[in-house]
Design a protein that fits this description.
Blueprint lengths: L1 H17 L2 H4 L3 E4 L11 E7 L2 E6 L4 E4 L3 E4 L11 E7 L2 E6 L4 E4 L4 E4 L11 E6 L4 E5 L4 E4 L4 E4 L11 E7 L2 E6 L4 E4 L4 E4 L11 E7 L2 E6 L4 E4 L4 E4 L11 E7 L2 E6 L4 E4 L4 E4 L11 E7 L2 E6 L4 E5 L15 E4 L7 E8 L3 E9 L4 E10 L2 E8 L6 E9 L2 E9 L2
Antiparallel strand pairs: 1-28, 2-3, 3-4, 4-5, 6-7, 7-8, 8-9, 10-11, 11-12, 12-13, 14-15, 15-16, 16-17, 18-19, 19-20, 20-21, 22-23, 23-24, 24-25, 26-27, 27-28, 29-30, 30-33, 31-32, 31-34, 34-35
């Protein structure tokens, strides 16, 4: 009896640990290296181009998701560096800023690389990008700011302009103005002729290290390192921090605008939404957010795409409906019944079109230990029994391959 109770307790603990928390939180979907083609769980940059979601990663290069995953890295493409820190969309072109190897442009077929040796780029350490409708603006570490109109390069630094610091974190465009957030020099505005600098000495900016910027009508939202966020309407400054608001963390790394809402990604406190009156906080305890270190945000209608430091990408649908974030594509999916299981469990799977289906079980070393399905199937929902016979106690992974997509679920066997 004691042995049974101990086993039951262990099963319950494991169930709590690996239960799919996203089913508890409607509207959340997570993509990581275990369940998708995302090449790295450190999703440092995001950009949306029509139905394509582009992701820059720390170790895995660049990924495109349009219902299926395509990965570009230094081994299979013209990408000059696998550490992609900034992205910007210009029509059908994706601009890619890398940590140490300059700037790349990809039009879907041809790669063009710009660096300090072959162009007017002032530093190969690109940190941020923004497109203003005619020019690509490049913020660098150590080299200041550059503007490229497709032909001519113009560089701005502390020696030849009113730029207050040559290390740039973030950029935003407001009509004819470019706003520049620097590492230690505060915030600058450049209208093409005149520079205006805002810092802790001459304005309501709460910190001179500006990490994130977003424009909402006449409001400029500024995220800082350690002092929360500020709103500037061109006249009045309003500061929000953990002391005077429900902002969950004063280290603000990412900002994005959705209608009248400002979404705030923090270093340790997860994600916050502020509508001007009410705060809503999402973290790994009360939502499907996989990591409280949010480092990139992008808005696609009702979908908030969230890049995290170690948990991959989360998508939150603000309607609370867990819908396909790319509506033109349906996905093959799997669900596991009892998990952990002792003798057997039921695996359910769905395929949207007639296709070849492979449903396999892998052990923790990556070896295939069972193939449950390998053949053509009509579109629809199916279920199959997985027996523990021949398997040892431990962790396994069930992988469904169908219609060019793969989905993987963790499974624990306890005997």
């Amino acid at each position: 009896m004691k042995k049974y109770i101990k086993l039951l307790f262990t099963v319950l603990v494991f169930t709590a640990i690996i239960s799919n928390s996203f089913a508890q939180y409607p509207g959340w979907t997570v993509y990581d290296t275990s369940n998708s083609g995302l090449p790295d769980n450190r999703a440092i940059a995001l950009a949306i181009e029509e139905s394509n979601i582009w992701t820059g990663t720390v170790y895995g290069g660049l990924a495109k998701f349009d219902g299926t995953w395509t990965v570009y890295d230094t081994s299979n493409s013209g990408l000059p560096d696998n550490l992609v820190v900034a992205l910007a969309i210009e029509g059908s072109n994706i601009w890619i800023g890398t940590a140490d190897s300059g700037l790349a442009k990809f039009d879907g077929a041809i790669w063009t690389v710009f660096n300090t040796s072959n162009s007017g780029l002032p530093s190969n350490s690109v940190r941020t990008l923004v497109y203003d409708g005619g020019n690509i603006w490049i913020g660098t570490y150590g080299g200041g700011l550059a503007k490229f109109d497709g032909t001519t390069w113009t560089a701005y630094n502390t020696s030849n302009s009113g730029l207050p610091n040559n290390d740039i974190h973030t950029l935003a465009v407001e009509e004819s103005n470019v706003w520049i957030g620097t590492y230690y020099g505060g915030l600058a505005k450049f209208d093409g002729t005149t520079w205006t600098v805002f810092n802790t000495s001459n304005s309501g900016l709460p910190n001179n290290e500006v990490r994130a910027l977003a424009i909402e009508g006449n409001n400029k939202w500024i995220g800082t390192l350690g002092s929360g966020i500020a709103k500037f309407d061109s006249t009045i400054w309003t500061a929000y921090n953990t002391s005077n608001s429900d902002l969950p963390d004063n280290l603000v790394i990412a900002l994005a605008i959705q209608d009248s809402n400002i979404w705030i990604g923090t270093g340790y406190g997860g994600l916050a939404k502020f509508d001007g009156t009410n705060w809503t906080v999402f973290n790994d305890s009360n939502s499907g957010l996989p990591d409280n270190d949010v480092i990139a945000l992008a808005i696609d209608g009702n979908n908030i795409w969230i890049g995290t430091d170690s948990g991959g990408i989360a998508v939150y649908n603000t309607t609370g409906i867990e819908e396909n974030p790319n509506p033109k594509t349906q996905y093959a999916k799997i669900e596991i019944g009892q998990n952990p299981f002792i003798k057997s469990t039921i695996i359910k799977y769905y395929i949207p079109v007639r296709t070849r289906v492979i449903l396999s079980v892998y052990d923790i070393s990556g070896s295939c230990v069972k193939t449950l399905i390998n053949g053509e199937k009509e579109a629809g929902s199916y279920s199959i029994n997985l027996s523990a016979k021949g398997l040892k106690t431990g962790i396994y992974f069930v992988r469904l391959t169908a219609d060019g997509n793969k989905e993987t679920k963790k499974l624990i066997l306890m005997k």
